[in-house]
Specification:
With 88 residues, this protein is of the alpha+beta class. Helices cover 20% and strands 26% of the residues. The protein has 2 helices and 5 strands; from the N terminus they run E-E-E-E-H-H-E. It has helices spanning 58-66, 70-78, and strands at 19-20, 29-35, 40-45, 49-53, 84-86. A hairpin with an 8-residue loop joins strand 1 (19-20) and strand 2.
Length: 88
Amino acid sequence: MSADQQPRRGGPRQAENWVTLPLKESSSIAAAAYDQARQLLRLSYVPSGTYEYLDVPPPVVIRFLNASSHGRFVNWHIKPNYRARRVG
């Protein structure tokens, strides 16, 4: 079996569908995006890089957007409860 005939591991990949999220002014978060189909929250931190948080449901993202402090919400509600991977 040639390399192009090999089955993909983990099944078919879902297409990426990132939506840029509007942020209030934040000293720790430079940008945010969400892929609802894959429930991935992508956050770019000042200056430490970009991370994707896995399996974040839409209601949590709405609470994040409405939080008085995005950084505090991430530290209290996202980081302790959702796995992350560095992507940039």
